[in-house]
Amino acid sequence: MNISLQGMDLFGNIGLKSIQERLDRQAKRDNQIAFYEQQKENLKNMKANTLEEISRKLELFHGYENQIAAAKMEYNNSQMFHVFDEAQELAEKIAEAAEKNKPKTPEERREDMIEEATGVEESEGLLSEVLDELTDVMDEVTEEITEETVDELEEITEELDPLAIEEKELIEKQIKEKENLLPENYQGFDYRI
């Protein structure tokens, strides 16, 4: 079981790069705020007896307040831009996953079969050339065997059925005789009634 808390799982692994950047920005903001809060606390210990010292103390106090507000505003502004970065990074990961699930072409399936059979990724080396040649040779042999088988079947059919050949020749002879009986200027016509 793996539980995820704000982009971090139980084992301390952080998923997206943008989440790590956001956590870094939060830590930076928290450190700045803690520093200025500590400076404000130090102002309490600072003694001010004159009007100028009190004025100086108030200026420092307001300056620290402004620095805290600026640190918060900087974090908020950067957070707005990084929300877009997170969305873009997530979209890239989804696009990569979609690319992996895209239907493969016959060449890609053949490459996958080769990789699976050899246990090695296909490279443009000697092994891939040999496998390509082997595939081509197998295709050629299959075609030759198919053609030879068809020729042999036709020969066997002719040998087994000499009467069929005689009948075929007889039918062709009868057709020629009928064509010879017709006058030369005869034109056939068909009517549908």
Architecture blueprint of SSEs:
Elements: E1 4-5, E2 8-9, H1 17-45, H2 51-101, H3 106-118, H4 126-160, H5 162-181
Antiparallel strand pairs: 1-2
Description:
The protein has 193 residues and is mostly helical. The chain has two domains: 4-102; 125-181. The protein is 77% helix and 2% strand. The chain is built from five helices and two strands; from the N terminus they run E-E-H-H-H-H-H. It has a two-stranded antiparallel sheet with strand order 1-2. A hairpin with a 2-residue loop joins strand 1 and strand 2 (8-9). Helix 1 packs antiparallel against helix 2 (51-101). It is rod-shaped and about 140 Å long. The protein starts with a strand and ends in a 12-residue tail after the last helix. The mean pLDDT is 77.
